[in-house]
Q: What sequence folds into this?
């Protein structure tokens, strides 16, 4: 594909072709985004405090996400950490963004030349197990930009 071509992340291959995130058109704080990805988070269950999805790619130079935050159905007190990891390394993120309650942020990241996979992770920072804070962490319209044909 030609350099500069944008491809939505939800169209990239996944290990065993498995979806962990849900995907489709979805809102980030009432603003609709196409080709979004989201995962449910819940503070009352340790297995639901974080969600991650890996995507395979080659020859892409940039990641752009117009908006990350929670959706309109989420608890209004949720804070979420969004991270992007390269290849199999999931200790040191290429990028980390924290959104406070109702705080939408944009992500732009130049990818290193040797990246063959990206892992997207969203983690709940709100630890209110008494009131069970829950909601959806949303990656609004994430896409990668081709680097070379």
A:
């Amino acid at each position: 594909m030609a350099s500069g071509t944008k491809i939505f992340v939800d169209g990239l291959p996944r290990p065993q072709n498995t979806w962990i995130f849900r995907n489709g058109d979805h809102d980030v704080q009432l603003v609709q985004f196409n080709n979004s990805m989201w995962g449910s988070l819940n503070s009352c269950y340790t297995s639901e405090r974080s969600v991650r999805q890996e995507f395979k790619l080659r020859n892409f130079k940039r990641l752009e996400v117009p908006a990350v935050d929670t959706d309109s159905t989420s608890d209004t007190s949720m804070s979420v950490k969004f991270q992007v990891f390269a290849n199999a390394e999931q200790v040191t993120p290429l990028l980390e963004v924290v959104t406070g309650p109702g705080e939408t942020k944009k992500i732009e990241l130049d990818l290193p030349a040797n990246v063959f996979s990206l892992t997207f992770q969203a983690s709940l920072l709100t630890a209110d197990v008494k009131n069970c804070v829950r909601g959806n962490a949303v990656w609004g319209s994430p896409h990668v930009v081709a680097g070379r044909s």
